[in-house]
Specification:
The chain contains 26 helices and 24 strands. It is of the alpha/beta class. Strand 11 and strand 12 form a beta hairpin.
């Protein structure tokens, strides 16, 4: 604030004169020059010779538009050659800086400041760049408010050396250090800035560990974790901090930053996981930790999954009385446990002691549910065959994108849905996959409705096209999807990364799944914001995770007939007369094999190779696949109808140029049907090669646009809404070269 007052005093002189003299007998106000150094040419004569030189330089520069500020610590009566400037132009004389400050505070704010000279000058320096509330707070709260430590400490501890050099002179720096030491309740002794910063952070961490953190330090802690600029330095300090040893496990502040404390909590909960009273009492504490902004900022996110497991009540499983009820229960409730355990595997797969109790709890719940699932297994009927054909038939005339994932479980699809913009227009259903739940079989079912198993993807696509002659279908990898509009009505996007990563990396692939969820959500949002009115997400199959696995968990069986064993099923040439009751039999012909056998749990058959990620079995995680459909928001208002008016003419065009006539209807007469912003997109060989500028058409208006073929003999034009990208109309333009005789007749 003192900088504003100082500048005002100088401006009063410079408004009428090009020269001002600033007399600072004590030299204590010299710091004010920094606040105006970019506004004036500053000279600092220290003796009579320097005065003469300054006078010569100023007179030589006259006349000019520049303004000159002469700063001196000489008394006014001692000035020789620049004394006349004091009389003819004007001077600002500060004999006692503390009095200047008090007068300005009183004149501007009508308050009195009672501080010692040193603290008053320090306060003035700190006030630079601040408004009047700084002085008002100072008058009410005293000298402790000279520095707002809640704000000043964060940049200081982030980079103490640079901050100290850039922000303070020696006097100000010492005062700041003293206030910091007072905050820490330690005696002041000169020390390096880095040492003091470390003491501040250590005091903060100790306070959090004992749930007795100083209020100001706690405020700094919260701001630190909210800051993008300073976050890395926090992590550096935290990595070096050694947690005090004599604290109680549950005595720390609930918003603490110590992951090792969270893991201690987790270990204790794991040890007492069967103690219902203990779990009931501890849940409130866990919920608080889950809600902690500071824990989330430090990426401590697993408490949500722990709560999901601990709060799950399995008793309702006992009331399931049909297969449909089992399926509904899975998609409404049980899938959340799959998400929770997947997240915990990702977090703790290398920490068996922490993970094992929670895996055991999950598998106990799963065992209860699978018992019901297989009790009604005889009612299972796959409805995966011909999925794409059904979508195409149901969406005639609607621009539709279909994402066909490989290995996208129902629970992953739910995660995707939670991140897609506009999910209120989402319809969630399921498809029951065919078995064995493997890519070759299930992708064939999705693309083909004839029951044939086709191993080559391109052949599946050719079959689908052959069954839909006259329907335009494009095929694209999901990572190739962009904002560019595709000409075809249906866009089928494939994405195989989940299955590929799982089979190659097994459970190491888990860490990449959150990125995959974000990728799916971004692509779905992109498709919805472009020209597609509907976007579907389907998948060939899901997968199971075995987590921590012992040899006893592996199912060891060697049929006496010719067989082929996979991790999740066994194929045999003939029926097993002695197969175990724990296996489910299905008659399915494939190559030389006639029968399939599956386990009634998620444990793998003992096979060579890695374990962890697998599919092919009969669990709901593998067979209940997503059938999600996002539909672009329909507006409640009636937009102006716009169409291409000369479609017939465009089918037979002579020459290189052609005109497109865009006609607007009468509209409803309301505000929303007065006009519409549209544009044209041009396609040749199903590839967009051009688009028009956006233009506005009024109701009843006819707009004619002229274009060229650009070397193409046939073009498709799409008329699109500029806001929603909805296709309003389209036309085919054909060039008739036979009739173009070039003016010979």
């Amino acid at each position: 604030m003192i900088d504003i007052w100082f500048k005002k005093d100088l401006t009063d002189i410079f408004d009428n004169h090009p020269i001002a003299v600033f007399i600072d007998e004590s030299g204590e106000a010299e710091f004010l020059l920094q606040t105006v150094k970019s506004e004036y040419i500053i000279y600092r004569p220290e003796d009579e010779v320097e005065e003469l030189r300054v006078k010569y330089l100023i007179e030589k520069a006259q006349p000019s538009n520049e303004k000159f500020l002469i700063y001196t610590q000489l008394k006014k009566d001692e000035l020789k050659f620049i004394r006349e400037y004091c009389e003819t132009c004007g001077s600002l004389e500060i004999r006692y800086l503390q009095n200047y400050i008090k007068d300005k505070v009183h004149q501007s704010l009508n308050i009195n400041i009672n501080l010692s000279k040193e603290r008053l000058i320090t306060a003035a320096k700190v006030s630079i760049g601040k408004d009047q509330t700084y002085w008002m707070d100072l008058s009410h709260k005293g000298s402790a408010e000279i520095f707002n430590l809640e704000k000043e400490l964060l940049p200081f501890v982030h980079d103490p050396t640079t901050y100290s050099k850039k922000s303070f002179d020696a006097q100000l720096l010492e005062t700041f250090y003293r206030e910091v030491n007072e905050l820490l309740d330690i005696d002041y002794i000169p020390k390096p800035a880095t040492t003091l910063a470390s003491e501040v952070v250590e005091s903060m961490f100790d306070g959090l560990a004992k749930d007795d953190c100083n209020k100001i330090l706690y405020e700094v802690y919260e701001n630190w974790l909210d800051s993008v600029t300073y976050k890395q330095s926090f992590n550096d300090y935290l990595d070096k901090y050694v947690l005090i040893s004599n604290i109680g496990t549950w005595d720390v502040n609930i918003n603490h930053p110590f992951r090792q404390i969270d893991e201690k909590w987790l270990a204790e909960i794991g040890e007492r996981i069967m103690d219902k009273d203990y779990i009931s009492n501890i849940l409130s504490k866990i919920r608080q930790r889950h809600q902690s902004k500071q824990a989330k900022a430090l990426n401590i996110l697993f408490w949500s999954d722990i709560i999901t497991l601990l709060e799950f009540d399995s008793k309702n499983i006992n009331y399931l009385s049909s297969f449909n009820e089992c399926m509904d229960y899975y998609r409404n409730y049980f899938f959340k446990l799959d998400t929770a355990i997947r997240n915990l595997y990702t977090e703790f797969l290398n920490n068996q002691d922490l993970l094992e109790p929670f895996q055991d709890l999950y598998k106990e719940y799963l065992s209860i549910f699978l018992e019901k699932w297989f009790e009604y297994w005889s009612d299972y009927k796959e409805n995966q065959t011909g999925t794409l054909q059904r979508i195409i038939a149901e969406n005639d005339g609607i621009k539709t994108a279909i994402i066909v994932g490989d290995g996208v479980t129902y629970e992953l699809a739910e995660q995707v849905a939670s991140k897609v913009r506009g999910s209120e227009n989402l319809t969630k259903a399921v498809i029951l996959a065919d078995f064995p739940s493997e890519t070759e079989n299930n992708m064939s079912r999705i693309y083909m409705d004839n029951g044939v198993i086709e191993s080559v993807q391109s052949n599946r696509e050719k079959y689908l096209v052959s069954q839909n002659l006259g329907v335009s279908i494009a095929f694209l990898r999901l990572d190739e999807v962009s904002e560019e509009v595709k000409a075809e009505q249906f866009l089928i996007c494939t994405y195989k990364d989940i299955d590929d990563m799982g089979e190659k990396l097994q459970q190491k692939a888990l860490k990449y799944l959150p990125e995959t969820v974000e990728f799916f959500a971004a692509k779905i949002s992109l498709l919805l914001s472009s020209s597609y009115e509907k976007v579907y997400l389907i998948s060939d199959h899901g997968f199971v995770l075995t987590g921590l696995l012992t040899e006893a968990d592996k199912i060891s069986i060697s049929p006496s007939v010719v067989f082929e064993k996979s991790e999740r099923y066994i194929r045999t040439e003939s029926k097993l007369s002695d197969h175990l009751p724990s296996l489910i039999e299905a008659k399915r012909s494939y190559k030389q094999y006639e029968y399939l056998y599956f386990a009634k749990n998620i444990n793998p058959f003992k096979t060579p190779g890695l374990y962890g990620y697998s599919h092919g079995g009969l669990s709901p995680q593998e067979l209940v696949t997503p059938y999600f459909c996002w539909e672009r928001s329909a507006t409640s208002t009636v937009s102006l109808l716009v169409k291409i008016a000369n479609k017939v003419e465009l089918k037979d065009v002579t020459g290189e140029l052609f005109s497109v006539k865009i006609q607007a209807e009468n509209g409803e007469g309301d505000l929303f049907s007065l006009d519409r912003k549209v544009y044209l997109a041009f396609f040749a060989n199903k590839q967009q090669f051009n688009k028009s500028d956006i233009f506005t058409i009024q109701r009843n208006e006819l707009i004619i646009k002229e274009y060229s073929f650009d070397g193409n003999s046939e073009i498709e034009i799409q008329l699109l809404d500029a806001t929603t990208k909805k296709q309003l109309d389209f036309a085919v333009v054909k060039q008739n070269n036979a009739r173009d005789l070039g003016g010979l007749f």
